Amino acid sequence: MAGTIRALMLEQGADKKVTSAIQEVAEDRLPAGEVTVKVDYSTVNYKDGMIVTTGGRLVRVWPHVGGIDLAGTVEKSDSPNFKPGDKVLVNGYRLGELFWGGYATKARLKAEHLVRVPKGISTRQAMAIGTAGYTSMLCVLALEKHGIRPADGEILVTGAAGGVGSVAIAILKKLGYQAVAATGRPEEADYLKGLGAASIIERKELTEAGEAPLLSERYAGVVDTVSGVMLAKALAQVKYRGAAAVCGLAAGVTFPGNIMPFILRGISMYGIDSVMLPMQPRQEAWDRLATDLPFDKLDAMTVEAGLGDVPQLAVDILKGKVRGRVVVDVNR
Ligand SMILES: NC(=O)c1ccc[n+]([C@@H]2O[C@H](COP(=O)([O-])OP(=O)(O)OC[C@H]3O[C@@H](n4cnc5c(N)ncnc54)[C@H](OP(=O)(O)O)[C@@H]3O)[C@@H](O)[C@H]2O)c1
């Protein structure tokens, strides 16, 4: 007979407010799937913040288990591709949105969504990276594939003290790039320099009003997690034939940009989607993380939490108060 699992259950009330509680849940309530995974760790990303606090218009069926990332060990498998004992992770593919996610001690999953945890990375490290860190790698890969090399000049990282920003800085440093960290938390300058930022600029330098369609050329590339005025001002400073990799919306979904950087400087903007990325480039990004992310820096940017801490962390991350990365031990 199936036992029970421990999960952070989310429920939406008649007033549309979402409440959460840790509950023992019958294992046979797990959704259909070929592979059952004993979850070790999950994490808290910006999107988790949205789902845990309001559902973020991403959750269709309640009650729900959130957590867009998980890593653990295969317990049972009906797929020839995975066997008990395999270390696996899932990020995105609508985990924690359409499917019950990582905030539980077990998950039942589609085999096609599973990524093998790269050699040399533990399940805890995989979740310290999580969707945020994997998205940082996708942004760096986009700039690399564009042809930007360390000698071409500085790379601007917006939302630098957040999860995507922190991991991007550590990777860029390891690859020899000069990362310029733009942050609204200047008190985190030592933290950002410790991760490898070559210099720090205050967020307000990129948010103060200004109508100029082009600014002086400064950056060979941009990793943008914020959008809004910051992105518009960043694009106006990208050097001739440079590029921006854009992944985030911490300042909102629109940006007041103009066409001039594109048609006078020939710059490019790469949209980064981590969620539905096919398996081959996804595995490539995870494999590159194993070699290009310095794990001492990952440790320095990561704090550990338990399942019961997730609701407060969800509120905090939406307010831009979480620094770096959080790894969630779902078994505590
Ligand atoms: N496209 C994708 O597939 C994908 C994947 C992962 C994440 N994302 C998106 O990327 C963004 C970052 O995710 P994350 O997990 O790194 O979140 P996070 O840890 O909360 O980092 C976001 C950072 O943005 C800055 N920020 C927050 N509010 C701001 C505002 N109003 N104006 C300007 N800057 C602001 C803060 O950095 P400072 O304090 O340093 O200024 C904050 O730490 C989110 O929008 C998320 O949805 C997208």
Explain this structure to me?
The chain folds into 2 domains: 4-117 and 301-329, Quinone Oxidoreductase, Chain A, domain 1 (Alpha-Beta Complex); 132-271, Rossmann fold (3-Layer(aba) Sandwich). The protein is built from 9 helices and 16 strands. The protein has helices spanning 46-54, 123-146, 163-174, 189-195, 228-235, 260-264, 279-292, 295-300, 310-318; strands spanning 4-12, 18-26, 35-43, 64-65, 69-77, 87-91, 106-109, 115-116, 154-158, 179-183, 199-202, 219-224, 238-246, 268-271, 302-306, 325-329. The strands form 3 sheets. Strands 3, 5, 6, 7, 8, 15 and 16 form a 7-stranded mixed beta sheet that branches. It has a 6-stranded parallel beta sheet with strand order 11-10-9-12-13-14, with helices on both faces. It has a 3-stranded antiparallel beta sheet with strand order 2-1-4. Bound molecules: NADP nicotinamide-adenine-dinucleotide phosphate. Residues 45-47, 131-132, 135, 159-165, 183-185, 203, 225-226, 230, 247-251, 272-275, 317, 320, 322 line the site of NADP nicotinamide-adenine-dinucleotide phosphate.
